[in-house]
Each structure stands twice: as structure tokens, then as C-alpha cells.
Amino acid sequence: MNCNDCVEKFDRYVDRELNNTEVLELKLHLEGCPPCADQYEFQASLKRLVKVCCDKDTAPAAFREKLRQILL
């Protein structure tokens, strides 16, 4: 797995949407690639923060779309 493939799978990894093989490949890449590991931690933390902040009410569609574009 290269860095581009890894980054493309971050959201699906956080959401537990990857199959076992993909999870293993991604974990192995993150263990050997500090820049990807740092980027993953940032994105995962941001996603958790948004979930906590927006859990009670539904965020406006425009905000969700803008955030999705930023994270991709």
C-alpha cells in the first residue's frame, strides 16, 4: 500500500467499513509511515470532535458537505 491508497481509506477505516485485509494493510502502512500515521491521527481526532459536537443536532447540509470536502 502506498501513501495515497492509505489516505484514501482513512474515513472508511475510522467508520469500520474496511474488510479485514484492508485493515491489516492500512495498519501495517501506518506503523511504517509516520507522516501517514500523523495525518490519520489528525483526521480521526477531527472526526471524533465533529461527532461529539454535532451529536445532539443534525449539522446543516452545507456544513456537512464543506467538512467532507475538507477531509477528502
Describe the structure.
With 72 residues, the chain is an all-alpha fold. The chain has one domain. The chain contains five helices and no strands. It has helices at 3-8, 10-14, 20-32, 34-54, 61-71. Helix 3 (20-32) crosses helix 4. The longest helix has 21 residues, at 34-54. It is elongated, with a radius of gyration of 13 Å.
Average of pLDDT: 88
Helix content: over 70%
Q: Estimate the strand proportion.
A: under 5%
Work out the helix count.
5
Low-confidence stretches: none
Label the overall shape: elongated
| Gyration radius over CA | 13 Å
Distance between the termini: 18 Å
Strand runs, count: 0
Instruction: Give the helices and strands as they follow along the chain.
Output: HHHHH
Number of domains: 1
Report the structural category. mainly alpha
Taking the sheet with the most strands, its summary is: none
